[in-house]
Amino acid sequence: MNTLTIDIRKAEPRDADAIAEVHHEAWRGAYSGIIPHRALTTMINRRGGEWWANAIRRAATVLVIEIGGKIAGYATLGRNRARELKQQGEIYELYLRPECQGIGLGSRLFAAARQRLADHGLKGMVVWALEENDNALAFYSGAGGRDIAEGVEVFDHKALKKVAFVWE
């Protein structure tokens, strides 16, 4: 019988290619049919291994979740960018490989990201999700987030609503 370990840790530059793979797979799965194809492809291609290595080296907070040593997902986090919201922390991105979704890994990564923000002294947290991303909306409302604000993101002239979930 094999026992797989699940670890959550701060990303290192050596993780960059694996994070780029997760980003590619997760974004294709989450946004195909929502974000126009050309815009989605451009956004994915812009974030290859070198982009992620630079983000990690620049001290961006990137967490990874590993199963048996293989990176299954990542989260990026830091200070809230929406000045109109009082929450101090923000999870910018939280994504898992499609085959790793729905088994509790996202909840574990989300809890670790929240804890990391709290450890940095940031009170309250916000997460934005596209309104058409039903899986994300269900995940964040199921995690206790309150839907309190809306915004718009434009992709190749297509305006998409986004929703802000907050935790105190």
Automatic annotation (TrEMBL):
InterPro entries: Acyl_CoA_acyltransferase (IPR016181), Bact_Acetyltransf (IPR050832), GNAT_dom (IPR000182). One of its GO terms (cellular component) is ribosome. One of its GO terms (molecular function) is acyltransferase activity, transferring groups other than amino-acyl groups. Pfam families: Acetyltransf_1 (PF00583). Keywords: Acyltransferase, Ribonucleoprotein, Ribosomal protein, Transferase. Residues 6-168 form the N-acetyltransferase domain. Signal peptide: none annotated. It comes from the Bacteria. This is GNAT family N-acetyltransferase. It comes from Aminobacter carboxidus.
